[in-house]
Amino acid sequence: MSNGTPKRIIIDTDPGVDDSMAILLAFNSPELQIEGLTTVFGNTGVDITTKNALRLVELAGKPVPVAAGAGKPLLRPYTGEGWKVHGRNGLGEVPFPEPKGMPDKRHAAQFIIDLVMANPGEITLIPIGPLTNIALAVSLEPRIAENVKEVVLMGGAAMNPGNASPVAEANIHNDPEAAHIVFHAGWPVTMVGLDVTHKTEIDSAYMEQLKAAHNRFTDFIYAISQHYMNLYRQRGIDGMPVHDSSAVAYVIDPTLFQTKKAYVDVEYQSSFHHGQTVADWRGQRKLEPNVNVCVDVDSPRFLDLYRKRLTEPML
Ligand code: RIB
Ligand code: CA
User: Fold this and answer.
1) How much is the pLDDT for 21?
2) Is 16 in the pocket of ligand 1 (CB under 6 A)?
3) CATH number at residue 289
4) Could you tell me the residue range of the domain that residue 65 belongs to?
5) 315 or 186, which is more confident?
6) Could you give the dihedral angle defined by the CA atoms of residues 88, 111, 188 and 241, in that order, rounded to the nearest 10 degrees?
7) Which of 95, 98, 121, 203 is deepest in the core (most CB within 10 A)?
8) 163 CB less than 6 Å from ligand 1?
9) Nearest CA to ligand 1 atom 10
10) Tens of pLDDT along 249-292?
11) pLDDT at 81
12) Could you say which DSSP state residue 254 is in?
């Protein structure tokens, strides 16, 4: 999967139940070195996602900096309803003590700029929430577009319906203007969208396998995921889609996914279809492809990887 040198990453996140599962996968994967967590509004408010990121760093016991970012979209009011899925506290309504740590003094966008510009070609950005911080960073310092290693984002839907609207995936829907900036900034973007994240599901049997490991990570994941799993159970579905961990898994082992390059545009002007990611598969717009789109995934191999990393943790 890798040449032995860990990939240096920043995860931009709105933890969030599946964000937490993704961040704990990253902490327990030798292929990755987390240089920072930057937080954004989305599944709940940025004050809470920042505290949750600090809690995850403390759970991992690693001195990873957390930098707080945007509390709302670039231009529009925040009307997201992620808290209905993730709980008001973003962690499935499970009570946790206040984190001990404090966030970095810098805004998330400045933190990203400083780290990328100090380490040209080294840093992979893994946004798994609305793209507001990423858009702010590349607008403030456009040179990060040629100094970042790549951007691997959880978001979008190229060939499937949306989850936040009939056409839009939640992260893109939450800030379509930011997404438009990110998709057109000229850096290498891989889109890990609903086309693949809806193909991998964690069901209750799998969750019991995690629980049986009884380590601090699987206990945490089991506890915070019950609220999310119960919501799906009420709809007659045993399982939760694996959204954010899919983006982390792509960086760990891209061979888990099949990808296709395409010109992808983000709709932000439509009142009903804002947040739609439109892939021009047949090149009809005669524009150079700007996105590497994940179109398929080896879900069994991905779930095996996830289970192994969390039940046999490194930390
Ligand atoms: O559409 C799924 C995405 O929206 C995930 O990042 C989840 O955490 C929510 O933010
Ligand atoms: Ca997320």
Assistant:
1) 98
2) yes
3) 3.90.245.10
4) 7-311
5) 186
6) -20
7) 203
8) yes
9) 129
10) 999 999 999 999 999 999 999 989 999 999 999 999 999 999 99
11) 83
12) G
| pLDDT, position 2 | 54
Could you read off the pLDDT of 114-130 as tens digits, one per residue? Answer: 999 999 999 999 999 99
Cα(204) to ligand 2 centroid in Å equals 21
- How many separate domains does the chain show? 1
| pLDDT band for position 315 (cuts 50, 70, 90) | confident
Ion ligand 2 residue ranges (Cβ < 5 Å):
14, 16, 19, 128-129, 244
Contact (CB, 8 A) for 99 and 55: yes
Could you tell me if the CB of 42 is within 6 A of ligand 1?
yes
Residue 216 has pLDDT above 90, yes or no: yes
pLDDT at 65 over 60: yes
Nearest atom in ligand 1 to the alpha carbon of residue 244 is 6
| Residue 243 near ligand 1, beta carbon < 6 Å | yes
Distance (Å) of CA 280 to CA 156, 157, 260, 289, 291 = 14, 13, 11, 8, 10
Q: Which residue in the block uniquely carries the two structure tokens 């990873």?
A: 64
205's CB contacts (< 8 A; 6+ apart) are none
Q: Are 144 and 116 in contact (CB under 8 A)?
A: yes
Q: Is residue 29 part of a domain?
A: yes
User: Residue 40 Cα, ligand 1 centroid: separation in angstroms?
Assistant: 12
